[in-house]
Design brief:
heterodimer; A: alpha+beta; Arc Repressor Mutant, subunit A; 3-stranded antiparallel β-sheet; globular; B: alpha+beta; 5-stranded antiparallel β-sheet; 3-stranded mixed β-sheet; 12 helices; about 60% helix; about 10% strand
């Protein structure tokens, strides 16, 4: 089974941006929440990967964050999708569906 | 007993075992290095600090106020290695989002037959490469072969598109994640309609494979042969030049009267300039052909050599013209007052009025004085 997971390693890596956008689309998300949500999936990752990715997505104006005061400790960054981010996510989903449709068609 | 170090994370003091502190320091240093190209490096690093602080908080409670080395290691493992998410297209993004990337001409080696010049031009003007190739072949015949030299020059001068950004630049496309996505989608659409399968397969084939590969080999062999031929010609010219100088120095050139004012130095310099004028292009072409033959790319260094050779050639032309004017002036003066020159015990008649006998017709002299007619007697 892990052999199969290895084969899809590069694909999962390439899809991480998609997975993160999708996670953030569910509502304002704190980085630790995103990690927790991804942690139970094939896209489990750490801050070391997520933070640079989020910062790039923000530079590409796909996500934005706002500071939210927390009861325990310092304020936290909460990320949300911009309009461009929503559009990008929709395109990525379309493409993903096209890809899986192709995979089905190839076997037919 | 372990030594403890206090650090400041996100405005709060944390106590770490020294070994743990070293681990954390190493991790953050590596992170800084990996993010060297990231414009938001500092912000990401402070995000890391904040995350580390939060994770430390989870280990601290009541009496426990020091983070152990093992706990630091766990935190670091949890964070995972720091990978830059930097797409190589960042420059194109941001303020000038809508600005169209200016086109730049490159040679494109992907699927090229010789040097990718036709390929590059086709991509630049967005036309079918076959049309450009046919045009090139036509131009070779129309120009009587000169087009081959022009082609080689273009191959030399136009840079090679190596990175995906350069290839995008060649087509005047902006290179960004969005564009890659769009292109991937377009290609996907192409693939969906069956008749495009073959075409896409051709496009993605590595450079110079199959037929192109054989042609490339053939071109290289021909280039080596031509290069060696030119190098031999260069050798002959050099030998001629050296023996000419030898003859000037030790031969018997007797110049009399006004002609004796033409110093042998002038003749030697003129001959040397003539040698450079003829030999430099031959040497340059020989080097080019041999370079193509061994499949070495033309880089910036080659361009510097080309510039140096060209400069030297122009100087040689100037020097030769100067010596030719001086010498022919003297010879014309001499011709009107004298009948012959003595060179290496040969009498050369240059004015019929002064020479004995009129048996043979006069023939025009070679450079530098074609106006002069002479006969050996």
């Amino acid at each position: 089974m892990s052999d199969i997971a290895d084969k899809f390693g590069p694909l999962r890596k390439g899809m991480l941006e998609f997975a993160v956008l999708k996670t953030v689309s569910a509502g304002k998300a704190y980085a630790a929440d995103i990690l927790k949500k991804l942690g139970t999936t094939e896209f489990a990752t750490g801050e070391g990967t997520l933070y640079p990715l989020l910062s790039r997505l923000r530079r590409e104006r796909l996500v934005e964050y706002e500071w939210v005061e927390s009861e325990a400790g310092p304020p936290r960054k909460y990320y949300y999708l911009t309009d461009a981010g929503k559009k990008q996510l929709a395109e990525l989903e379309d493409y993903w569906h096209e890809l899986s449709a192709t995979m089905k068609k190839l076997g037919a | 007993m372990n030594k403890v170090t206090t650090i400041n994370l996100n405005g709060n003091a944390y106590q770490l075992e020294e070994a743990g502190y070293d681990l954390l320091k190493k991790y953050l240093e590596q992170a800084r290095k990996n993010l060297a190209d990231d414009p938001d490096k500092d912000e990401i690093l402070s995000d890391f600090e904040r995350a580390i602080a939060e994770k430390c908080d989870a280990y601290l409670h009541g009496k426990k106020n020091v983070i152990s080395k093992e706990e630091v290691q766990k935190i670091i493992d949890d964070m995972g290695p720091v990978e830059s998410a930097e797409a190589p297209d960042e420059k194109a993004h941001g303020a000038d989002e809508s600005a169209k990337q200016p086109k730049r001409l490159y040679t494109l080696r992907d699927g090229a037959i010789i040097g990718g010049v036709a390929n590059g031009l086709a991509a630049y003007f967005n036309i079918d490469v076959t049309i450009v190739r046919l045009l090139f072949v036509l131009l070779v015949f129309v120009s009587g072969g000169i087009w081959i030299v022009i082609y080689l020059l273009m191959m030399l001068v136009i840079p090679v598109a190596e990175t995906p950004e350069q290839k995008a630049e060649l087509r005047g496309e902006r290179f960004s994640a969005q564009d890659v996505l769009d292109r991937a989608k377009k290609k996907y659409a192409d693939v969906s309609s069956k008749e495009h399968w073959q075409k896409v397969a051709d496009d993605t084939r590595p450079a110079l494979s199959g037929v192109g590969d054989v042609l490339q080999k053939l071109v290289q062999v021909v280039a080596v042969i031509v290069g060696i031929g030119l190098a031999i010609a260069f050798g002959f010219l050099t030998a001629t030049w050296i023996s000419g100088l030898w003859w000037l120095a030790f031969g018997h050139l007797h110049l009399t009267d006004q002609l004796s004012t033409i110093s042998l130095w002038t003749v030697a310099i003129g001959a040397t300039a003539a040698y450079f004028i003829a030999a430099l292009p031959i040497a340059g072409l020989a080097a080019c052909f041999l370079k193509i033959g061994v499949g070495r790319p033309f880089g910036r260094q080659s361009m510097r050599w080309l510039a140096a050779v060209l400069g030297l050639w122009v100087i040689a032309v100037g020097v030769f013209a100067g010596t030719a004017i001086v010498t022919s002036g003297r010879i014309n003066d001499y011709q009107s007052t004298h009948g012959y020159i003595n060179i290496d015990n040969h009498h050369i008649c240059i004015n019929d009025n002064f020479c004995p006998g009129n048996q043979e017709p006069m023939i025009p002299a070679p450079m530098p004085s074609p106006a002069l007619h002479y006969r050996v007697y």
